[in-house]
Amino acid sequence: MFATSNGPLIQEPMAIFAYLVALVGFVFILGESKNHILRKFFHYAPPLIWTYFLPMISTTLGIIPSSSDLYSFVSAYILPVGLLLLLLSINVKATLKLGPKAILMFLAGTVGVIVGGPIALAIFQPYLPEDAWTGVAALAGSWIGGSANMAALVEAVDTPEHILSPIIVVDTVVGYSWMGIMIALAGYQARFDKWNKADNRIIGEVNKQVGELEKKNARPIAVPQLLAILGLGFGLAFIVGKFSEKLPQGDILNTATWTIMIISAIGIVLSFTKVRELENYGASIVGYAGIYLLLATIGAKANLIYVVEAPQYILMGIVWLAIHILFLFGAARLLRSPMFFVAVGSQGNIGGTSSAPVVASVFQPALAPVGLLMGLLGNIVGTYGAIVCAKLAQMVSQM
After folding, report:
1. If you placed Cys at 141, which of 118, 153, 161, 247 could pair as Cys (CB 3.0 to 4.6 Å)?
2. Structure confidence by residue, pLDDT tens digits, 205-249
3. Transmembrane stretches, by residue range (predicted)?
C-alpha cells in the first residue's frame, strides 16, 4: 500500500532502525499509561505482542522491507548482548532455593515442550512445508523461556519468512490463550490442591525465601556503569562470534548456534561473580531493550500474506501445547504439587519473564517474584532445550 515503484517506503538501515525504535517505544509508553482503558487493554494484550505485530503489519503494507542489513546486524550482535546481560543478572542461588518440587514442575513442562514439538510435527507434517521443522525450532525457543530464546533459534536454524509468519501467529494466539485459561483456573486452585492432596506449606516457605533473597540495591544508572555494561556486552559478543566461526559447522550447530550457547554459558558463569553487580545499575534493562528491538526486526521479517497457512500451524500448536499440559498435570499428580506451581511452571516455559510473574500474581499476589524466577530459569535452559527439540524436529522432517 505504501510501497513505491522502487520498493518499500523506508529502505535505508538507519531509517528502518529509527522507525522500529519509535514504534516499539510508542507501544511501551502506551502500555505504561495510567489510563484505565489502556491499562486493561495492555494487561490482556501485552506490548510484547505488538512488538511482533506492528512491524509485521508495516512490512505487509510496504512501509519497511522484509530483509535488510539492519536485521542481520541486530541478530549477530544485539541478540548475544541481550542474552548475556539478562543471564548475568540472574540470581541462580535464589532460583535453586525455590525447592525441588517447583523446579521439577518447571522441568516437566520443559520436557513436554521438547517432546511435544516433534510429535505434533509428525502428525501435521503432510499438511506443512518440508522446512516446517525450522518453525518448530523457533516456537520451541519461545515456549521454553520466552521471546529471547525464540529469537536465538530463528537465527540458529534460519527460519524462512513463509514459516516465521504463521509461527508468530501460533505463538501469540495459542500461547496467550493458554495464559488466559491459566488465569481463569486461579479461582479453582483450592479445589485442585485439596483433590491433589498438595502440601501448601511450601508456598509460604518459598514466599519467605524469595522475600529475603530478592532485595535489590537498585541505583540510578550512571555513565561509567552504562559504558561498562555496553562494553562488556558488545566486546564479548564480538569475541565469541569470531571464535564461533572457527568451530565445526552443521545444519543446527552453526556459527549463530555456537555463539548463542557460548554466550549463554558465559552469562550464567558471570552471574556467580561480582560482574552481576552491574544489575544494580540496570544491566537487565539494557538487555531487555536490545531483545525488544530484536523482536521488532523478527516481526519485520514476516509478512501477513503468509498467514493464510496459519490454520494448520495453529492446530499443530494446540496439539503441542496439549502434550505440554499433560506432562505438567501428570507431574503435579505424582509430586502432589500445588496448582500454583503448575501455573508458574507452565508460564515459566510458555511465556517466560513477560507473563510468568503476571500469572503468579493472580494465583498468589505476594509471589510474583517466583514467576519471574521461573521465567529466568526458562532463559537459562531455553536455548539448550530448544536446540534438542529442533534436532528432533529435523529428524522427524527427514523420516
Report:
1. 153
2. 655 655 554 455 656 777 888 899 999 999 999 999 899 888 887
3. 14-31, 43-64, 70-90, 102-124, 163-188, 221-240, 252-273, 285-307, 313-332, 366-390
Q: Answer left, alpha or beta for residue 352, where phi above 0 means left and psi between -120 and 50 means alpha.
A: left
| Nine cell digits for residue 381 | 535452559
Cα–Cα distance measured from residue 342 to residue 364, given in angstroms and rounded to the nearest whole number: 13
C-alpha cell at 339: 496448582
CA atoms within 13 A on the CB side of 284: 17
| Interacting residues of 91 by C-beta distance below 8 A, sequence separation 6+ | 213, 214, 271, 373, 376
Q: Residue 373: which of 43, 81, 97 has the closest Cα?
A: 97
> What's the rounded Cα separation, in Å, for the pair 25 and 21?
6
Please answer whether residues 189 and 338 qualify as being in contact, where contact means their C-beta atoms are separated by less than 8 angstroms.
yes
Name the nearest CA neighbour of 370 among 83, 182, 91: 91
Per-residue model confidence as pLDDT tens digits over 253-274: 678 778 877 888 898 888 888 8
8 Å CB contact between 150 and 380? no
DSSP, collapsed to helix, strand or coil, labels residue 4 as: strand
DSSP state of 62: T
- Tell me if 67 sits within 8 A of 8, measured CB to CB: no
Rounded-to-integer distance, Cα 337 and Cα 97, Å: 16
Distance from the first to the final alpha carbon of the chain: 42
Continuous H helices in the chain: 13-31, 36-44, 47-60, 69-73, 79-88, 92-96, 100-124, 132-143, 147-157, 161-185, 189-195, 201-213, 223-244, 255-270, 283-301, 310-335, 339-350, 356-363, 368-397
**Cα 152 to Cα 140: distance, rounded to the nearest angstrom:** 11
